[in-house]
Amino acid sequence: MPFQFDHLRTLTALVDEGTFEAAARRLHVTASAVSQRIRTMEQTAGKVLVRRTNPVTPTPAGDVVLRYARQVVLLDGDVLAELREGEGEGGRVSVPLAVNADSLSTWFLEALAELPEDLGAVFDVHREDQEHTTSLLRSGTVMAAVTSTPEAVQGCTVEGLGVMRYLAVCGPAFAARHLGDPVDLDRLPTAPVVNFDRKDDLQDEFLRGLAGRAPEAPRHFIPASTDFAQSILLGLGWGVVPERQCQEEIARGRLVALAPGRPVDVRLYWQRWNLRSPLLDRVSEGVRAAAATRLHPL
Question: Could you tell me whether strands 50-51 and 93-99 are parallel, antiparallel, or unpaired per DSSP bridges?
Fold first, then answer.
């Protein structure tokens, strides 16, 4: 192996924690020891592996070594878990995962909570749009991801999870004020709209399918899934909300479904490293089982 195991573990800790001092605390060594290990790795690689910024970020060469480092650390944890099975010993392996915010708030946390307590893992969840989680896989930042990309990232396997259904909704008072009574959907392109962030195109996708054009009205940006839904409930604008987050409020009359027969369906996939790992296998099984009961079938 071109790198020492402690050095590989140091690189993962440095990227995860963001600073040499925080990585040192996690590893119970000095910051100078962390710095020396990274310099040794860079001398071995013949390339700079991390940018000394705040937080520290890997270079393209660092991404390659980071992916390798995470795989080695994962396999080491698998071996120790098998050797210590039933003995109640050992630390836990950090499993970094990438998940879109809506999955995180509606079903994915349930998948993690339903995994057995003796799994021997802690989860480092990175929240990212489902169309961009694959970039975290490519860089080696995460081991697995919920994504809308059906094409497997190099070195990964992919399987379908299901369809996450969204409904366009708004509050009754907002509907009366901006869309009329009865609701006139022709007025929707000029009504204030709520977006999750500037990557969120679900509202545009819905309106293009309905009216053939994108919204022309003021946009609010609310980058938290629960707060996004709450802002629509409070009348800030209309938006496309996960079905599981709005069905009850629609039934209670607190939200109006603008076009219940025209949902926005997002296909979700599970991409993970193509690596034989009992730990990663069990996490994948848990995600697969949760998706089967909480998402619409593909």
Answer: unpaired
Residues 6+ apart with CB under 8 A from 44: 2, 3
Average pLDDT of 66-80? Answer: 85
**Length of the chain in terms of residues written:** 298
51 residue type, one letter: R
Query: How sure is the predictor about 53, in pLDDT bands with cuts at 50, 70 and 90?
Result: very high
What ranges do the domains of the chain cover? 1-89, 164-265
* Alpha carbon 153 to chain centroid, angstroms: 16
Three-state DSSP state, 2 = coil
| pLDDT surpassing 80 at residue 88 | no
pTM of the model: 0.78
The pLDDT of residue 174:
97
Cα separation, 98 vs 96, whole angstroms: 7
Q: Is 139 left (phi over 0), alpha (psi -120 to 50) or beta?
A: alpha
What does the block give as tokens for 285? Answer: 């099984």
CB 234 within 8 Å of CB 173: no
- Asked if residues 218 and 128 have their Cβ atoms less than 8 Å apart, the reply is no
CATH of segment(s) 164-265: 3.40.190.10
Q: What token pair was written down for 211? A: 């009216």
Judged by phi (left if over 0) then psi (alpha if -120 to 50, else beta), residue 175 lies in alpha
